[in-house]
């Protein structure tokens, strides 16, 4: 439990009295804390960066980015046209083999029923007295 509390404080970068006393008694936690301190000291040391480094990185990045972009655009166009062509072919095949007789007969029955309803309604309206 003490090791877990101490490691949690190491991760968060905080220290309290409990973890400080644990670090003086626990060899493993003390070793980890020493490694962290050493790494942080290395990060704080100034580093000499050549002035041309940024421009070299940017030029390499632009070259690779433009190469990727050209390939990506072509492949996207190819994928899109393939999907569209497949959808059109699927529509043609399904349209040729579709059985529309059932749909047509249902639509005809529906239309007949609507016409019959309208005529019955008009007949009823005509039979009602106006005043
Ligand atoms: Zn410990």
Task: Give your account of this protein's structure.
By secondary structure, the protein is mainly α. It has three domains: 2-44, no CATH class; 69-98; 99-131. Helices cover 83% and strands 0% of the residues. It contains five helices and no strands. The chain has helices at 2-12, 17-25, 27-44, 53-96, 101-127. The radius of gyration is 40 Å and the shape is elongated. The model has no long low-confidence stretch (mean pLDDT 84). Zinc ion (ZN) binds at residues 2-3, 6, 22, 26, 28-29.
The gist of it:
It is built from 5 helices and no strands.
Tell me the number of structural domains: 3
Mean pLDDT: 84
**Percentage of residues in helical conformation:** over 70%
Spans where pLDDT lies below 50 across 5 or more residues: none
- The gyration radius over C-alpha positions equals 40 Å
Q: In sequence order, what are the helices and strands, one letter per element?
A: HHHHH
Content of β-strand = under 5%
Distance between the terminal alpha carbons, to the nearest Å? 95 Å
Q: Count the E strands.
A: 0
Structural class by sheet pairing and helices: mainly alpha
Supply the number of helical segments.
Answer: 5
* Largest sheet data: none
Q: Tell me which ligands are bound.
A: zinc ion
Shape: elongated
What are the SSEs and their pairings?
Blueprint: H1 2-12, H2 17-25, H3 27-44, H4 53-96, H5 101-127
Helix pairs in contact: 1-2, 2-3
Zinc ion binds at residues 2-3, 6, 22, 26, 28-29.
